[in-house]
Design a protein that fits this description.
Elements lengths: L1 H13 L11 H12 L25 E5 L1 H5 L2 H10 L5 E7 L12 H4 L11 H10 L3 E7 L4 H6 L29 H17 L3 E5 L23 H16 L5 E7 L15 H5 L4 E5 L19 H16 L8 E2 L2 E3 L14 H13 L5 E4 L14
Parallel strand pairs: 1-2, 1-9, 2-3, 3-4, 4-5, 5-6, 6-7, 8-9
Helix pairs in contact: 1-2, 8-9, 11-12
């Protein structure tokens, strides 16, 4: 009986106002009880949604580009909109909470303002949204979640400390810190930022850096931080589920960026990313399948960067194979693909029109119609045929 009640609570939690046209029937209740009856206590997983529907069933087939907040608010926006107007591209991913943890516009929300992370990079969010609407651009808000140097420095209790009590940071030239995925205060802060983006008019929330720091398994027992009995995988997936539970009723899609190779390997327990557990709780999954990010041997390539079609085709097959067992819980697959030249990769090739089109063709050949182009400087190749 307790298991049945738990299942019904899960069902109720997934039957949001976004599903207002759906009634919970007697047959569905029977299905739920049957679902639970087949499980023992060890199999029952509250992170598995019983039901999921797309909050935006009329959304376009998304083909988009990335824009920093500086680009979105500056002169580069003219050329980005011209690119979209003159091609089959139709969407833009814009930084709303950036890679350092700054909120890129003034929200007017006292809960967010209390964290003192707002920067007025986008001076007029309403004007920006109006401009996107005038150009029929599908707007996606990028929110970098657990990589948050700003919050970590302000609230070290929400982050990770070295044995000597100092704030942990990685070894990059500009050191970055993460906040702790175990802590619901961190969850709630990012969800609050997402809710403000929805109010501004964004139709999709894209969460990035939904994980622990890379190589965390090597330092997990050395660092000082709050944790509980949950695995790192369940802590991260728990955030994603809570975010969708709170945001789906607002009619917004939820997407998550994830390492491309995650579809090809078992769960990455070190950083807390499980491709399936995350995917089952989102509307869109965006694996970052840049060929330059794969090492020698992947998909039979000596230099994966030099074989864009083969790498994208191989990763697409792996992604489908990983997610097909989810059935109706399988999200839209919308990969990030490469529109930059990886000069740091030995044996790299110059990326241009042909290389971008080869990636898109590989996606198309494997039943994937949506994609996002990544170029950190927001300078995209011209003359590309985005619908091969």
């Amino acid at each position: 009986m307790e298991m049945l009640l738990a299942a019904l609570m899960i069902i109720w939690g997934n039957m949001t106002t976004a599903d207002a046209d759906i009634e919970l029937s007697f047959e569905q209740l029977v299905q739920a009880s049957s679902y639970v009856a087949q499980m023992d206590d060890e199999q029952f997983d509250p992170l598995v949604p019983w039901y999921k529907s797309d909050p935006q069933p009329d959304a376009p087939t998304v083909r988009g580009i990335y824009a920093t907040a500086h680009s979105a608010a500056g002169a580069r926006m003219d050329s980005l909109l011209e690119l979209i107007d003159s091609t089959e591209l139709n969407a833009m991913v814009i930084d709303i909470k950036d890679d350092w943890g700054y909120i890129t516009y003034q929200t007017g929300n006292p809960v967010i303002e209390a964290y003192e992370a707002e920067q007025r990079i986008i001076p007029d969010i309403e004007a920006l949204m109006q401009r996107l609407n005038e150009h029929d651009v599908y707007p996606i808000a990028r929110i970098v979640v657990f990589k948050d140097t700003v919050l970590a420095k302000k609230r070290q209790d929400l982050s990770f400390s070295n044995p000597d009590g100092s704030l942990w940071a990685n070894n990059k030239s500009s050191p970055e810190s993460f906040v702790n995925p175990y802590l619901e205060e961190v969850w709630d802060y990012n969800i609050e930022v997402a809710k403000e983006a929805v109010k501004a008019g964004f139709k999709e929330i894209q969460f990035d850096y939904v994980r622990f720091p890379e190589g965390f398994e090597k330092r997990a027992d050395l660092l000082q931080y709050a944790q509980d009995e949950r695995s790192r995988i369940d802590a991260v997936a728990g955030f994603v589920k809570k975010a969708r539970d709170e945001l789906a009723p607002l009619g917004v899609r939820i997407s998550v960026d994830i390492f491309g190779y995650a579809a090809s390997v078992p769960a990455a327990e070190g950083i807390g990313q499980d491709f399936v557990k995350i995917s089952q709780n989102v509307d869109v999954i965006s694996p970052m399948v840049y060929p330059s990010h794969y090492t020698t041997g992947w998909y039979g390539a000596k230099v994966p960067d030099a074989e864009p079609y083969n790498v994208i085709a191989g990763s697409s097959v792996d992604t489908h194979n990983k997610l097909d067992p989810l059935g109706e819980l399988k999200p839209i697959i919308r990969p990030w693909i490469q529109d930059f030249t990886a000069t740091w990769v030995p044996g790299h090739i110059k990326y241009g029109k042909h290389e971008v089109e080869e990636q898109i063709r590989a996606l198309k050949d494997n039943g994937i119609d949506e994609f996002l182009l990544w170029n950190s400087g927001n300078r995209y190749t011209s003359g590309v045929n985005y619908i091969p």
